[in-house]
Specification:
Blueprint (H helix, E strand, L loop, with lengths): L1 E2 L3 E8 L9 E8 L13 H5 L14 E8 L5 E12 L14 H5 L11 E10 L4 H17 L5 H10 L1 E2 L6 E4 L7 E4 L12 H9 L1 H12 L3 E6 L2 H15 L7 E3 L16 E6 L12 E5 L4 E3 L13 H13 L2 H4 L14 H19 L7 E5 L5 E4 L1 H8 L5 H8 L1 H10 L3 E2 L3 H16 L3 H19 L31 H17 L10 E2 L6 H4 L4 H5 L2 H15 L3 H14 L3 H13 L6 E3 L1 H16 L9 H9 L2 E6 L2 E4 L13 H27 L1 H4 L10 H11 L5 H30 L31 H4 L16 H20 L4 H31 L19 E10 L20 E8 L2 E8 L9 E6 L3 E8 L10 E7 L3 E7 L5 H15 L8 H4 L17 H19 L37 H4 L7 H12 L1 H9 L4 H6 L6 E4 L15 E4 L4 H7 L10 E5 L6 E4 L8 H6 L10 H18 L4 H4 L5 H10 L11 H9 L26 H4 L1 H4 L1 E2 L2 E2 L21 E6 ...
Parallel strand pairs: 10-12, 10-13, 11-12, 19-20, 32-37, 35-36, 35-37
Antiparallel strand pairs: 1-7, 2-3, 2-6, 4-5, 5-6, 8-9, 13-14, 15-16, 17-18, 20-21, 22-23, 22-28, 23-24, 24-25, 26-27, 27-28, 29-30, 31-32, 33-34, 38-39, 38-44, 39-40, 40-41, 42-43, 43-44
Helix pairs in contact: 3-4, 4-16, 5-6, 5-7, 5-10, 8-10, 10-14, 10-15, 19-20, 19-21, 21-23, 24-26, 24-27, 27-29, 27-30, 29-30, 43-48, 46-47, 48-49, 48-52, 49-50, 49-52, 52-53
């Protein structure tokens, strides 16, 4: 029973504080006056009566009522029902306020006007611990009515009765009370006090805010956010807060809860803890600055969630289900709103019922959220008090909600902690929620999705909730007097009387006395065992994982483990990768722990080393995916196992598994240990009681033995039931037993934790993991891992007792960690203090002892043989290359190229491979072996030069091989290589970091001197001080002089751009200087003339420079071309049109040009100085080649600056105001160009014939042999410029075009105009002039000089009829586009990851890269220039800065026009001249130093080599060098192995002293500084760079097709050889012995096969199976060696053979087949129709394959049809006429002579010759033997003899009997044999 009301209080306005702005209330009277003992009087009631402050009003307000809630210090809630009415205030008279002194008196009279009547509030307050709002309203209303209507009832009596009225708290009783004023009220108490009472408040809350908003609030309250309600009604605030709490049932809200917050306490809102508070809306503005509060405005129906607050919502699908259920309850019309015939009546529940239905929905929600929670409770103590803990991780894990934010927060919250304390107890009374969660979960699961059934369930629950609040439906009517209407407006109302305390007190005393005599009411508590409900596993049918962990996988795990224990290691090894993969699934991990458990006997399982290793790896893999929480109990299940499995290291020393599985976060998580500890304690306590009961009841329980084992909670509830019946001693005994159980477990766990936290090697302080670089090899047979003890360290002071334990940090950390654990669990589970102290003393000793054991184990484990990982294979290094970093063990993962991984060809999966990555001064090398056991013998090498690294990014690799691989790197190189590596688990992450840092340092050295080409041979340490390298003194002086002179020259100029002055040699060591992007030096007029014109007195140093310059490539080439010699230019002989000018010998005019330049004879040096200013980078036009026949010259220059030729064209005839400077330069420029034109011999006569048609026909018909080659230039030009030709008819115009020219060559352009006029799908210029070509090109004369310039620069240029030159504006791509295109090309050829459809993806990405379109463009422009030069016009190429595309075009033009450049020597010269001397910026474009890092790699030179490769493919007989030579250059121009391609210009090379290295300087023979020397040396040794098909035609000008359809993707981009790495470092590739000897060792009984398997992407074809000629040369060499002769050079041998063949050919009329290569009959087919030796043929014969896609129609055919030829016709080009006739041919097996095996041969039946010839293979040209058909006697079916092919039907054998012997044959199949027999028979019969 409880008092209905504890206190009655009368609160009024306090007039004393009236002066202040806010008034105050004061308690006028309170009853009873002294506090109840059990319930002190709450403080601050006066604040809550007027929450918005005590204020006076000018009129009377009607009375108000609300209930405020106060919470006292014991978190008991007090309900304060406040009834407020207004009374007129007495006018302030002095005598009534003696306290106030005189201040008041003087104030009053001074106000002349009598103030209006004011009203003050007065409150009647009831304070109660029960929440019966309606009863309070009625009772207070009754008191007011008695007062206001003046009823003749004593107020004291009524109040006394009210305070003494007692009612039952719960149990559903009904009590009628009367307060003694003729009134009657009925109070119903709820049946169960645990269920909250909500009347209609929940339904109202939903009406005010709506479903979504309330759900937000609900989730916010559960996840402990701050919630604030706003409303202008206090009653609504109280209701809303009550409703929110009701929704949270069964969780109880345990934070600040103030439904009505008074104004004076508003600062409570900024408290840091969560709360639910209600505030009147007038204070809304004050709530604006609250940043982290969810504000619900009840009147406006909004919920405002601030930005910084994230409310986790319910997990799906619960959220959706809850929403649907709520809308069914709240808005039943919604379901039928769309029906055509909606039901006429829809039953809407009453508000009260709706309220209960909503609560039912939330009750169901909690039952679903918390289902199975009782299975995760750990009971750690039963007596004297049950202690229960909840295993949160297991609950989340089993529910599969570990990732769910909401549930995790709820379980961590205070409310849930309270829930566990309150509802965890196994023996107590139960309520609706317990039943629901235990029995109805299955039903809810089944009904999911069925709305009718769900609604029915909701209604059932709602009925129960309703019944709980209203147990008696027929309520007797209340009878309570109400005041008369409008009574509050009466004018002369007496104030509320002062009550007599005595009377009230007397009534109260009477009642208390009566209560004491009454017998105490005993409430029978219905306690019972709380049902647990179905276990979670039974509820959650998890279908997701069922598939992933199919039974098959578990079977694999089981098998593997049993193999390990049966010592079948090979079997286990095979299954192992599959097991590791299976471990991703949870079921497999559980399976592993169960299986391992089976193999533990008596807590111990001793294994041998290999078994131990397998078990450890499985455990590690198993723990790998466990989070620190260990939701699925995997770590928990392994914990007993890691202390069970062990191996003997030596007598008396055992190593347990725990020392090898410490690397997992779960061991450092204190919650994990607690959960484990509690779980074990529970098991032991359960055992304790089970043993007891079994001893006592053995005899009775035997019949019903097979009952289920009782759970710990059931035992506990049984014990709790019996507890009151036990004797004191028995109780004490049980308490003690339990306590000692917990204590012993604590000791056990202290030991366990020390096992898992102390690292194996405790000597080192393992907080900083050892850098792991040094001792990778020394890793012993177990993973000597580092434990995580380090990370445990938190600042936790050890207690003073054991500083002496062990000074090692690790030990201290572990001790602290264990201490903290022990403190927490022991206090929670009630261990006595003495025991706890004892534990603290023990822990340091435990740790110390364990450290000592570990030391011994560590010592012994080091002695074990190293682990069975593949040995790290050391890579071969070049001379002078050194390892910067020892190998890091890594896996090489497959990337998007599929051949290596097996791919669609089905080769062996070479990748993933395991091995190590090495970083040397030159390369990054991976070397290892494939992980696939079937390919394990092979070695896989993938490497690339560091200098070619273009992108490095960290990746996380899901390596299927081994679970442990996480971090990796993806390194991409511009040698078209990709290393995708994953670091092995033993590689510490900081080693990987160090690797990356080193890599970066080596990739981008501060200065070129840091690159490998310079540092080679020095130890890497010195690499940073280039000073250490002394140059030859003479060289230094030379370089110094040069630099000085250059400075002098530039000295007096005004330098307008920042210029780069090289530091002097002395400062070189310390200083590095940034490389400028452009060294543009514009020189102003003041020039020192003396330095520019070569004076007669040259300083000796200058002379030396000049001599050196003369030796340079350019100069040699100028002399070859007859463009002048240095001597002639110094003596100024006027006969030559050109001279070599030394104006730039000091690099003063143009830094990026060579020192000697060819300029027109007539131009003075000082003019050049001025002209150079018009061009970018001062690169003025210079001659680089002259056509020896037409004497036309090719010039190159940079693009023009704004003023210059263009300016000259624009303002051609405009009058100028005076000879301005710009003008004079333009004139000089014009003069310069004119001088070039004058130099051409036929310049004069060309000006005579000016019309285009005349020009063409005249040239075509004239006998001048030069002009026969003249193609139709107009169309060509248009094609480059993007105009349209005028139709195909144009081709035959000019008479000569349709027929074949003498050379058998015709320009492809004449035919391919239409196709070619588009460049990669774009118009070249983007202009269509309505089908007519640009007017400029149909001009009536041909210019003598064409200037090819960039369209964007030449805008607005008007062609000028008077000039002899003409500008050809073309559109070119810039370097940016080349870079972008190259990136895409690399991704296409070497994709980072496999694509879904590789064949399409490759072609698509290739097209997107637009690389081929750029090649097409360059070729197109080059061919145009070739044509122009060949017709006798000179050409000036003036694009961009003159060092990228210009260089490409100019070099290609020379290559196409001049056969000299197609030899090895000539090509070298071309590259040296055009690329190196003319300043292509290799360092800048290759991003070789730190400065270039941002600009990235631009493969301009590579693009040029690709163009050469395209031409080479089309004209295989014109080049002396092979394709391999081009690849070699492509690789090494970016590899930085040679110095040749370093730096940006000759000037820079001189400065570093590179250009004129003297001959004596080479210290070691091996280190080649120049790539050319290296190539020469190699070429002498082996014919790798030589093209055997080289048979040039004199003076041949090549005109390749440039259409994209004619271009091939260079195989340099796609091929790789994993067996040896890139083959371009010849020494390395040669180093590997060929596995030839194996064949000899085979037993000779088996038929020997010569079959070699060549894997794509693995073997180097040209090495394994060289082409015929190489093989012959090699055999010759070997024979000569054997005979003891000095072998001849291969070149000499080759030349001899060629010479002898030529003479043979001359002698005999017919040629033998051996004259294959020199046959001049090929001249008509010179353009490749596939008649070429593949660089690496397959089969030891000439590989003559046909390129089907070169369009053979466009090849001028010599009488033969131009279609695809069969191989046999192809032979006709080579074979003499004898072998022409092949009536029938095919492959047959032939049995050799006596005792020889069967061999397949290629047979040819020749009717005309009447013979059967056979060859080794179809491709073979040498006939092996001939069977004359005249000698054949008979043909009979044969029988298979020994050694015949097995698979062939015996009917396929036939014999051929001749006069000499019997030939045995065998065809592939029976019909084949029949056919052969028939053919031969017919031949015989024909004869």
């Amino acid at each position: 029973m409880a008092r209905l009301a504890d206190y009655f209080v009368l609160v009024g306005y306090d007039p004393g504080k009236r002066g202040s702005r806010d008034g105050q209330g004061q308690i006028l009277q309170r009853f009873p006056e002294k506090d109840w003992e059990d319930n002190p009087f709450p403080q601050g009631i006066e604040l809550f009566c007027q929450p918005s402050g005590w204020q006076l009003f000018t009129e009377r307000n009607p009375p108000t009522f609300f209930v405020a809630v106060l919470t006292d210090i014991n978190s008991e809630r007090h309900y304060c029902a406040c009834f407020t009415f207004w009374e007129p205030i007495e006018s302030a008279q002095p005598q009534s306020h003696p306290r106030n002194g005189d201040g008041e008196e003087e104030e009053e009279p001074s106000s002349p006007v009598q103030p209006a009547q004011l009203f003050a509030p007065k409150s009647l307050v009831l304070v109660s611990r029960l929440d019966h709002a309606e009863v309070f309203r009625n009772s207070l209303g009754l008191i007011y009515t008695i007062y206001v209507d003046g009823l003749s009832v004593s107020l004291e009596n009524v109040i006394g009765n009210l305070l003494t009225c007692t009612i039952p708290i719960t149990g559903g009783a009904q009590r009628t009370i009367s307060l003694g004023a003729g009134d009657r009220q009925v109070i119903q108490t709820p049946i169960s006090d645990s269920l909250p009472v909500s009347s209609c408040s929940v339904a109202l809350l939903f009406r005010q805010l709506g479903i979504t908003n309330v759900l937000y609030l609900f989730c916010a309250a559960l996840t402990e956010h701050k919630i604030l309600f706003l409303s202008s009604s206090y009653q609504r605030l109280t209701d809303a807060c009550r409703a929110l709490l009701a929704l949270m049932f069964p969780l109880k809200y345990s934070f600040t809860y103030v439904p009505i917050l008074p104004a004076q306490l508003l600062e409570v809102l900024s408290t840091p803890t969560p709360f639910i508070i209600g505030v009147h809306s007038i204070f809304q503005s004050e709530t604006q600055e609250l940043l982290d509060v969810v504000i619900a405005d009840l009147d406006g129906g909004t919920v405002n969630v601030p930005e910084c607050v994230h409310i986790s919502l319910l997990p799906e699908p619960l959220l959706q289900q809850t929403r649907e259920a709520l809308s069914m309850v709240l808005d039943p019309e919604l379901e039928v709103a769309d029906l055509a015939f909606p039901p006429s009546t829809i039953s809407v529940s009453s508000l009260k019922m709706q309220d209960k239905e909503i609560r039912a929905v939330f009750l169901r929600l909690f039952a679903q959220l918390l289902q199975g929670y009782r299975w995760c409770l750990h009971i750690i103590r039963i007596h004297p008090e049950p202690v229960i803990r909840f295993h949160k991780a297991a609950f989340l894990g089993q529910r599969g909600l570990t990732e769910d934010d909401f549930l995790t927060k709820v379980l961590e919250g205070m409310a849930f902690a309270g829930f566990v304390t309150e509802r965890g107890a196994p023996y107590r009374s139960i309520d609706l929620f317990d039943e629901l969660v235990a029995y109805e979960v299955k039903r809810m699961r089944a009904e999911e999705g069925n709305k009718q059934k769900i609604l029915r369930h909701i209604k059932e629950l709602a009925e129960k909730l309703y019944k709980n609040e209203n147990p008696y439906p027929a309520v007797t009517m209340h009878k309570v007097q109400k005041p008369t209407e409008g009574c509050h407006l009466r004018l002369h109302q007496k104030p509320f009387p002062r009550l007599d305390e005595g009377t009230v007190q007397w009534i109260i005393d009477q009642a208390t006395a009566k209560l004491q005599t009454a017998p105490p009411a005993v409430k029978a508590e219905k306690k019972c065992m709380v049902p647990s409900g179905p276990p979670i596993a039974a509820i959650m049918e998890r279908n997701g994982n069922a598939l992933a962990n199919s039974a098959r996988r578990l079977e694999v795990v089981r098998n593997c483990i049993s193999y390990v224990f049966e010592n079948k290691m090979l079997e286990a090894k095979k299954l192992f990768p599959a097991v590791l993969r299976a471990m991703k699934g949870r079921a497999a991990r559980h399976c592993l722990t169960q299986e391992l458990n089976l193999h533990v006997q008596q807590n111990r399982a001793v294994l041998d080393h290999q078994q131990f290793d397998f078990i450890i790896r499985m455990m590690n893999c198993c723990l790998q995916d466990c989070t620190a929480m260990d939701e699925h109990g995997i770590a928990a299940a392994l914990l007993p196992l890691v202390t069970a499995f062990c191996r003997k290291l030596s007598p008396g020393i055992t190593q347990f598994a725990y020392s090898c599985v410490q690397e997992h976060v779960v061991w450092t998580n204190i919650q994990f240990w607690e959960a484990m500890f509690y779980c074990d304690v529970q098991n032991h306590i359960r055992a304790l009681y089970l043993d007891n009961s079994e001893e006592n009841h053995t005899d009775e329980e035997s019949p019903e033995e097979p009952q289920e084992a009782k759970s710990a909670l059931e035992i506990a509830s049984e014990q709790l039931r019996l507890w009151p019946t036990m004797s004191r001693e028995k109780q004490q005994e049980l308490i003690q037993k339990e306590e000692s159980t917990v204590f012993s477990q604590a000791i056990h766990y202290a030991n366990r934790m020390s096992y898992l936290l102390l690292p194996l090697d405790t000597s080192k302080n393992r907080l900083l993991r050892s850098s792991g670089l040094g001792d990778m090899e020394s890793v012993s047979n177990s993973f000597v891992t580092n434990s995580i003890a380090g990370s445990v360290a938190e600042s936790y002071d050890t207690e003073s007792g054991f500083e002496d334990a062990e000074s090692s940090d690790v030990a201290n950390y572990v001790v602290r960690f264990i201490n903290r654990f022990v403190d927490k669990v022991c206090t929670e589970s009630g261990v006595t203090n003495e025991h706890l102290k004892g534990l603290h003393v023990m822990i340091p000793d435990i740790v110390q002892m364990h450290i000592e054991t570990l030391d011994a184990v560590h010592r012994e484990s080091k002695r074990l043989p190293p682990i069975q990982k593949p040995k790290l294979l050391r890579p071969n290094l070049l001379v002078g290359e050194e390892c910067v970093m020892e190998g890091l063990r890594v896996y090489l993962m497959p990337d998007g190229r599929e051949e290596a991984a097996g791919g669609n060809i089905g080769g062996p999966p070479l990748l993933p491979a395991e091995g190590a990555i090495f970083l040397t001064t030159y390369r990054i090398i991976f070397k290892g072996t494939p992980t696939d056991p079937l390919v394990g013998e092979q070695v896989v090498i993938r490497s690339f030069p560091i200098a070619s690294l273009t992108k490095e990014k960290k990746i996380n690799v899901q390596a299927q091989v081994d679970q442990f691989i996480q971090e990796g790197l993806q390194l991409r190189s511009c040698t078209f290589q990709l290393l995708k590596i994953a670091f092995d688990e033993e590689v510490a992450s900081d080693s990987a970091e160090i690797f990356r840092k080193h890599l970066h340092k080596l990739r981008y050295p501060q200065h070129v001197r840091g690159t490998f080409a310079f540092t080679v041979g020095q130890s890497p340490k010195q690499a940073m001080q280039p000073k250490a390298k002394e140059k030859n003194p003479s060289l230094r002086t030379l370089s110094k002089n040069l630099v000085k002179n250059a400075k002098k020259t530039i000295g007096r100029q005004y330098v307008t751009r920042k210029k780069y002055t090289p530091p002097m040699w002395e400062q070189r060591g310390s200083q590095h200087f940034p490389e400028d992007n452009e060294d543009e030096i514009s020189v102003s007029e003041e020039m020192d003339r003396s330095t520019l014109t070569p004076t007669t007195t040259m300083k000796p140093s200058d002379k030396m420079t000049i001599n050196h310059l003369v030796e340079r490539a350019c100069c040699r080439d100028y002399q070859r071309l007859g463009l002048g010699t240095l001597s002639s230019s110094l003596t100024r002989s006027k006969s030559e049109p050109f001279r070599i000018s030394t104006v730039n010998r000091m690099y003063a005019i143009c830094r990026s040009y060579p020192g000697l330049l060819i300029v027109p004879q007539s131009i003075q040096d000082n003019t050049i100085q001025r002209i150079s200013r018009c061009y970018r980078q001062n690169r003025f036009p210079v001659v680089c080649w002259r056509n020896s026949r037409t004497k036309a010259v090719l010039l190159r220059s940079g693009g023009l600056h704004g003023k210059g030729v263009v300016g000259l064209f624009k303002s051609q005839n405009a009058p100028t105001a005076g000879p301005s400077q710009a003008d004079s330069t333009s004139l000089e420029q014009e003069k310069y160009l004119q001088a070039v034109i004058n130099s051409m011999p036929h310049y004069a006569d060309a000006s005579g014939r000016n019309t285009l048609s005349g020009f063409t026909s005249a040239h075509m018909s004239s006998s001048d042999h030069a002009d026969k080659r003249q193609p139709k230039l107009g169309s060509l030009m248009k094609q480059v410029m993007g105009g349209k030709d005028d139709g195909p008819g144009a081709i035959s115009r000019g008479g000569k075009w349709g027929s074949i020219r003498a050379s058998g060559r015709m320009s492809s352009y004449a035919l391919n105009v239409e196709i070619g006029s588009r460049l990669a799908g774009k118009e070249l210029l983007g202009t269509h002039h309505n089908g007519t070509a640009e007017p400029g090109f149909l001009r009536p004369h041909r210019a003598s000089l064409y200037i090819i310039g960039d369209k964007s620069q030449l805008k607005g240029v008007k062609p000028d009829p008077l000039q002899h030159w003409e500008v050809v504006p073309i559109e070119v791509f810039d370097v940016r586009q080349v870079k972008a295109s190259f990136k895409k090309l690399m991704k296409a050829c070497v994709p980072g990851c496999p694509s879904t459809d590789p064949s399409i993806a490759y072609l698509r990405s290739l097209e997107e890269s637009e690389w081929l379109s750029q090649i097409h463009k360059i070729l197109q422009i080059s061919v145009l220039v070739v044509e122009l030069l060949d017709t006798g016009s000179s050409v000036l190429v003036s694009l961009e800065d003159g060092w990228d595309i210009t260089t490409q075009v100019v070099s290609l033009v020379q290559l196409l026009s001049d056969p000299y450049y197609r030899t090895l020597e000539g090509f070298r010269l071309l590259v040296e001249k055009e690329w190196l001397s003319f300043g292509h910026r290799f360092s800048h474009r290759g991003a070789q130093t730190l400065a270039g890092q941002s600009s990235g790699f631009a493969p301009i030179f590579l693009q040029f080599l690709d163009c050469v490769h395209q031409i080479h493919l089309q004209f295989p007989m014109e080049f002396e060098f092979s394709q391999y030579y081009l690849k070699f250059l492509s690789y090494h121009y970016i590899s930085n192995r040679f110095r040749t391609f370093l730096l940006d210009s000759d000037y820079e090379r001189i400065e570093l002293g590179l250009l004129y290295e003297e001959k004596g300087e080479r210290k070691s023979q091996q280190v080649y500084k120049s790539i050319w020397d290296y190539i020469d040396r190699l070429n002498k040794k082996a014919p790798i760079f030589f093209n055997y098909m080289y048979a040039p035609e004199d003076g041949e000008v090549l005109r390749p097709y440039s259409n994209i359809s004619n271009l091939k993707v260079w195989d340099y981009y796609t091929e790789e050889t994993l067996s040896e790495g890139p083959s371009y470092d010849w020494e390395l590739a040669q180093g590997q012995p060929e596995p030839v000897e194996d064949t000899d060792r085979q037993d000779t009984g088996a038929p020997q096969t010569k079959r070699k398997i060549i894997w794509p992407c693995y073997d180097n074809r040209s090495r394994v199976e060289p082409d015929a000629i190489s093989k012959l040369l090699e055999e010759l060499h070997n024979l000569e060696m054997e005979l003891g002769q000095i072998p001849e050079r291969w070149k000499d041998t080759w030349d001899k053979v060629k010479a002898s063949q030529r003479t043979e050919a001359r002698q005999e009329g017919s040629r033998t087949p051996s004259s294959l290569l020199m046959s001049s009959g090929l001249s008509h087919h010179r353009r490749s129709l596939g008649v070429y030796l593949q660089e690496s043929g397959v089969g030891s014969t000439l590989n003559l394959s046909l390129d089907s896609d070169t369009s053979s129609t466009s090849t001028p055919s010599s009488g033969k049809p131009g279609g695809r030829r069969s191989t046999s016709t192809l032979y006709s080009q080579f074979h003499t006429s004898e072998s022409e006739n092949r009536s029938y041919e095919g492959s047959l097996y032939k049995k050799g002579a006596f005792m020889k095996p069967w061999k397949p041969r290629w047979f040819v039946l020749d009717k005309t010759k009447h013979q059967l010839r056979y060859y080794d293979s179809r491709m073979d040209t040498e006939c092996k033997g001939v069977i004359d058909l005249a000698e054949v006697e008979s043909i009979t079916p044969g029988t298979p003899t020994m050694g015949a092919p097995k698979t062939v039907d015996e009917k396929a054998f036939f014999d051929l009997k001749t006069t000499k012997r019997v030939y045995n044959f065998c065809a592939q199949d029976v019909p084949g044999a029949q056919q052969w027999i028939d053919r031969i028979q017919s031949c015989l019969s024909d004869a």
